[in-house]
Design brief:
The chain contains 16 helices and no strands. Helix 8 crosses helix 10 and helix 12 runs parallel beside helix 14. The chain is globular.
Length: about 325
């Protein structure tokens, strides 16, 4: 009973706070389906009603960005683009790791608001935001729109109006209505869609990405594929190396391992990123460590002893480099 679930969830939010309530819902064992997505709209509604445009940074990216959905739908209904700008500017105060995620969530909300058949309208709304809001990141908004199109569970189950063709694994990226400037956001998400349509055929996805003519889109697609691998293997090192071995060349195998090390660090893993870089072949270790070091700097918190993390690096030379930087 969704209405009863919402009643209990709202009581939990008021009792333990919005962040802990989202964490508890995420680990509750409830299915990752449309109903739980709609249930988690409650926290987005609550944040907007309680904090106004200052509330979005408290959202967590759980259940297909559903907190962002609930919040942004309120923002758009209440004040349109002016409120979107105010919301984004509050996110900016929290730094780039937050405001890029906010722009991504806003993209999700734009498509949910426009309706799933109106994909290009949602992308054009991103363009309006880019034009009217200082430093609004285009890619993250487009990325959110295309991700929302894949899952499209705002009405409780995948919408029949989403832009998906089971017989065309490049659609909607190959649709003439999708302007070239949107293709980065499209191909970043296409591996997830292909995985659904092919029941997780990683090698097939890799071959499709590898066959793309444009180098930037090939990399974007490969990056999207690598980010699919991280949740599939739950960040586990052995599984990561196996999945990445399915990439078509050594260069892309190394790229895949590095992307997984970065993904792992970004979601809080402070062990496996160093193991992945430590076990990658010599051709890939430089880029792997450098990108993990960049993540260490980006996600550094005053309460975290970043320098101590360097002790997790087995290789003496790279451990020394890390200690000198942090």
């Amino acid at each position: 009973d969704l209405s009863k679930q919402k009643e209990f969830y709202l009581a939990l939010i008021k009792r333990v706070g919005v962040v802990q309530a989202q964490d508890e819902l995420f680990f509750s064992g409830l299915p990752f389906d449309g109903q739980t997505h709609l249930l988690n709209h409650v926290v987005g509604d609550y944040l907007y009603e309680t904090y106004g445009t200052k509330g979005l940074p408290y959202c967590r990216d759980y259940f297909l960005s559903s907190c962002y959905h609930g919040f942004v739908l309120n923002v758009i209904a209440d004040g349109g683009m002016d409120n979107v700008a105010d919301t984004f500017n509050e996110c900016v105060k929290e730094g780039p790791t937050v405001y890029t995620q906010c722009a991504h969530g806003i993209g999700h909300g734009f498509l949910a608001h426009a309706g799933y058949k109106n994909l290009t309208k949602a992308l054009h709304t991103c363009d309006q935001a880019i034009e009217n809001i200082e430093n609004f990141p285009a890619f993250n908004c487009y990325d959110g729109v295309f991700m929302e199109n894949i899952w499209a569970v705002h009405n409780g189950k995948p919408s029949p109006e989403r832009w998906v063709k089971e017989t065309d694994l490049l659609y909607p990226c190959n649709d003439k209505r999708i302007d070239a400037k949107y293709l980065g956001g499209c191909f970043a998400n296409q591996p997830a869609l292909i995985a659904i349509l092919t029941k997780g055929d990683i090698k097939k996805i890799a071959d499709i990405c590898f066959d793309l003519d444009q180098a930037n889109l090939k990399e974007t697609c490969m990056n999207g594929l690598a980010r699919q691998i991280h949740p599939i293997v739950k960040g586990e090192v052995k599984g990561t190396f196996y999945m990445c071995s399915l990439m078509p060349t050594l260069e892309w195998q190394n790229y895949c391992i590095t992307a997984n090390a970065v993904s792992a660090y970004s979601v809080g893993d402070r062990e496996n990123p160093f193991i992945l870089c430590g076990e990658i072949n010599s051709a890939g270790e430089n880029i792997c460590y450098e990108q993990v070091f960049s993540m260490m700097a980006m996600y550094k918190k005053t309460t975290e002893n970043t320098k101590k993390l360097c002790s997790k690096i087995f290789d003496r030379d790279w451990r020394s480099i890390c200690e000198k930087r942090f």
